[in-house]
Amino acid sequence: MDEHALTCCFTGHRPQKLPWGMNEGDPRCLALKAELAARLEGLYELGCRRFLCGMAIGCDMYFAEAVLALRDLHPDLRLEAAIPFGDQPGRWNEKQRRRYNALINAADGVTVLQTVYTGDCMMRRNRWMVDRSDILLACYDGRPGGTMNTILYAQRCGLRVVLIEL
Description:
single chain; 166 residues; alpha/beta; Rossmann fold; six-stranded parallel β-sheet; 20% strand; globular
């Protein structure tokens, strides 16, 4: 990979904070996925070649799938999964686990940050990604929580923040 290539990490909401919940056929979800694809193409044109994803249900998976679709067009692009703890999908349903496993298998790299769940493991994962990135792409609705905390941390670290408002 080009040593001058940029790295972009991602943060966004899980389905319980999305207005369409788990209904990915909702026009608002389809519009978000289209915007994610367009933003990723723009980031690629800016020189981003490495994309880091935390692999949670919801926006993270939309992001990972959009990166993989873009990689089909640009084989020099890399998707790297940042897993907060070893059994991240352990409490998910079978369909969610299959989707997660397919994304993990398609990723160019996987980093598991710790073996077991702790109360701070998601934020530790988010900070790990920010600390290794130049740009943060965020799907955000303005409410407090992990996404907001990640955006604020990225801003304190001097990253460019690209916001997709929900």
